[in-house]
Amino acid sequence: MSDAKCAHSSPSFLLLFLDGVGLGEAGANNPLSALEATPFLTAYLGQSLVAEAAALRSGVLFKPIDATLEVPGLPQSATGQTTIYTGQNAPEFLGKHQSGFANGSLRQLIDRYGLFSQALALGRTATLANAYSPEYFYAIAERRRRYSVCTLLNLSAGLPFRMQYEYDQGEAIFWNIIGNAAPDQLRKPISPATAGQRLAQLSGRYGVTLFECYLCDYAGHAQDWERAVTYLQRIDAFLESAIAHLPPHVTLIITSDHGNVEDLSTKRHTRNPVPLIAIGPEAAAFARVKDLTSITPQILSKMAIAQQRF
Ligand SMILES: [Zn+2]
Questions:
Q1: Mean pLDDT, all residues of the chain
Q2: Cys-Cys crosslink for 279: which of 76, 142, 189, 252, Cβ 3.0 to 4.6 Å?
Q3: pLDDT 10s digits, 171-212
Q4: If you measure from the C-alpha of residue 301 to the centroid of ligand 1, how many angstroms do you get, rounded to a whole number?
């Protein structure tokens, strides 16, 4: 079997991270229960993204998973994302949920257990699909910003970042999907459908592809129903296109780090479970995932089994 055919037969994964999406009770404070918010995904899964949801058919899994990780307090981004991308219980490791960005202690987990470096160690490839700007790295150098978890994940694996050139080539997606945010005036806006197609096509060329979107977390903190519905509609159209263009050997995994947008009665995060949606040939294997710690190990075990087969 040629290398090219071998690589194509191996399972690949597209990990789509949606910040701040929990599964809560349907109602006036939950934009995910609005019919107009996620028309595609609701029809595709056969139910809306609310509490008690569960769907499993051939190639499609949807279940609630725990994001609290048995640590008191409200789950936060840095520890939640580190847990998703390392398989290690980061809030337990730190003794608390940590918001925002990764400190020195979390970097130890990312350096040692990062999904990207572990995929590379298995002889596979990995990429961060998000578009970056020079301004981001200037801000880091000037200590006006700190690294996000996914940035450290990419750095610790020694992988390049997708910049303006890649964006112009149709090989990067801005975190807000459509690319129209200031201060980068050079970035040409694209439709959610184009962004979804870009991401799906990119995922066909790598063992693991990660894309992060923070829209729902912003809408949740703002307690803004209209903005939440607008953002969910954008994500829904993006997903519809990504799923339509998903290569047959790629399994799409969608998850979040903590609840937020599903309860607009509070501007804070929630302790609600978060969705785990798996679509593709390896979807059923994710039925055993019960919390954020099992996603990376499941991806790696599927890739390791495939490697032994060849
Ligand atoms: Zn978050």
A1: 93
A2: 252
A3: 999 999 999 866 656 788 999 999 999 999 999 999 999 999
A4: 26
140 C-alpha to ligand 1 centroid (Å): 20
The rounded Å distance from CA 245 to ligand 1 centre is: 27
* Global confidence as pTM: 0.95
Question: For residue range 93-130, what is the model confidence (pLDDT) as tens digits?
Answer: 999 999 988 777 999 999 999 999 999 999 999 999 99
Q: What whole-number distance in Å separates Cα of residue 223 and Cα of residue 273?
A: 19
How far does the centroid of ligand 1 lie from the alpha carbon of residue 150, in Å? 12
Whole-number Å distance, alpha carbon 74 to ligand 1 midpoint, is 11
- Centre of ligand 1 to C-alpha 12, Å, is 25
CA distance 142 to 246: 39
Question: What domains, with CATH codes, occur in the chain?
Answer: 3-309 (3.40.720.10)
Angle at 44 between CA 262 and CA 222, to 5 degrees: 20
Measured CA to CA, the distance from residue 31 to residue 243 in angstroms comes to: 22
Q: What is the DSSP string of the chain?
A: --HHHHHHHS-EEEEEEETT------STT-GGGSTTTSHHHHHHHTS-SSTT--EEETTEEEEEEBSSTT-SS---HHHHHHHHHHSS-HHHHHTS---SS--HHHHHHHHHH-HHHHHHHTT--EEE-BB--HHHHHHHHTTSS---HHHHHHHHTTPPPB-HHHHHTT--B-TTSS---TT-TTPPP--HHHHHHHHHHHHTTSSEEEEEE-HHHHHHHHT-HHHHHHHHHHHHHHHHHHHHT--TTEEEEEE-SSB-TT-TT-SS-B---EEEEEESTTGGGGGG--BGGGHHHHHHHHHHHHHHH-
Query: Residue 36: how many CB atoms within 10 A of its CB?
Result: 11
- How remote is the CA of residue 47 from the centroid of ligand 1, in Å? 24
